[in-house]
Amino acid sequence: ISRFKMTALLSLLLGAGPLLLLALNPVHGSDNATLPLVLWHGMGDSCCNPLSMGSIKKMIEETIPGIDVLSLMIGKTVSQDTENGFFMDVNEQVSMVCSQLAQDPKLKDGYNAMGFSQGGQFLRAVAQRCPSPPMKTLISVGGQQQGVYGLPKCPGESSHICDWIRKELNAGAYTDIVQKHLVQAQYWHDPLNDDLYKKHSLFLADINQERVVNETYKKNLQLLDKFVMVKFLQDSVVDPADTEWFGFLKTGQAKETETLQESVLYKEDRLGLAAMDAAGKLDFLGTEGDHLQFTREWFNAKLVPYLR
Ligand SMILES: *[C@@H]1O[C@H](CO)[C@@H](O)[C@H](O)[C@H]1NC(C)=O
Ligand SMILES: *[C@@H]1O[C@H](CO)[C@@H](O)[C@H](O)[C@H]1NC(C)=O
Question: Is the model more confident about 267 or about 12?
């Protein structure tokens, strides 16, 4: 899920003043060039929207001179890319991205990845399924790592699509037809229908090892140097916001939440997250503000250091 109306964000980003970091942090020498960065946009957004991903790409390029930033386009055109964020089977999207990354000569020595909103969980699937080229650091910015149970607010201009999506989800998120064709159904996590979720969720239940423990996923995820999760502390778009730190509602009810560390996933270490935590590979960042609302200063201070 991504907030489509990024105008407010943009004005924050642009209004934030000059980049002092440039003077303080010279670029690395040529033998140790900065790793390329792959971005995956959120719902309702596209690779190249000048008001959102386009401006973020530009901002990163200005802050880290010489960095290669690839903002993923899912499909052949920008409008297909936006549509696919709602309607294209996520497993297919992930495999398209995997082959795109594998064919990119710039990425062969490794890359960092930053996913915005649903792009955060999609890139984790890339890390788990496609270890080559190697992803080094994964940053999930407001990603729904344990899915969502609710679509409380819809991104501005696509609100009619969202009203429709909400109806479909309520009617039967775990029916095959909805699973296959609705992206948000594929990370719909209904704590009151845990059996249905585990059995029928085509994407999330698979990458979160709900049915079986796929040792390959576990091994691949642990190849990351860092997995950074950013949570927006006043998030009114993602429900529950705890999912941004890999927490979720406790099974069987829809009120109380549990943290990642309290979950079965972690206690049984089904995905390697407990091992990564013990190795200091998990960073949980919180920032004031609603979904995807951050300032350029915050971005430069908290996220840019992972990219140098
Ligand atoms: C280049 O990176 C490697 C591996 O991270 C490190 O061991 C080495 O010291 C770096 N060299 C320079 C010149 O920074
Ligand atoms: C585990 O994941 C790998 C990589 O995606 C896949 O090839 C394999 O079929 C999966 N195994 C199971 C049991 O799901």
Answer: 267
| Ligand 2 atom at minimum distance from 214 CA | 1
Q: Which ligand is nearest to the CA of 26?
A: 1
Residues involved in catalysis: 117, 235, 291
Q: How confident is the model at residue 1 (pLDDT cuts 50, 70, 90)?
A: very low
Closest residue CA from atom 11 of ligand 2: 214
CA distances from 273 to 29, 177, 220, 279 (A): 33, 32, 11, 10
Start-end of H helices in the chain: 7-14, 21-24, 53-63, 78-87, 90-102, 118-129, 159-172, 176-181, 194-200, 204-207, 215-221, 264-267, 273-278, 296-298, 304-307
CA distance linking residue 25 with residue 40, whole number of Å: 26
Which atom of ligand 2 approaches the CA of 217 most closely? Answer: 2
How far is ligand 1, taken at its centre, from the CA of residue 35, in Å?
A: 13
What is the fold of 3-14+28-307?
Answer: Rossmann fold (3.40.50)
Q: Which of 98, 216, 221 to mutate to test the pocket of ligand 2 (most atoms within 8 A of CB)?
A: 216
Separation of 217 CA from ligand 2 center, angstroms? 8
In this model, does residue 29 exceed pLDDT 70? no
- Which pLDDT score, from 0 to 100, does residue 166 have? 84
Ligand at shortest distance from the CA of 126: 2
Separation of CA 86 and ligand 2 centre (Å) = 25
Give the start-to-end residue ranges of the domains of the chain: 3-14+28-307
Q: What is the mean pLDDT of the chain?
A: 89
| Residue 5 backbone dihedrals phi, psi, to 5 degrees | -80, 90
Residue-wise pLDDT for 52-97, tens only, equals: 999 999 999 999 999 999 999 999 999 999 999 999 999 999 999 9
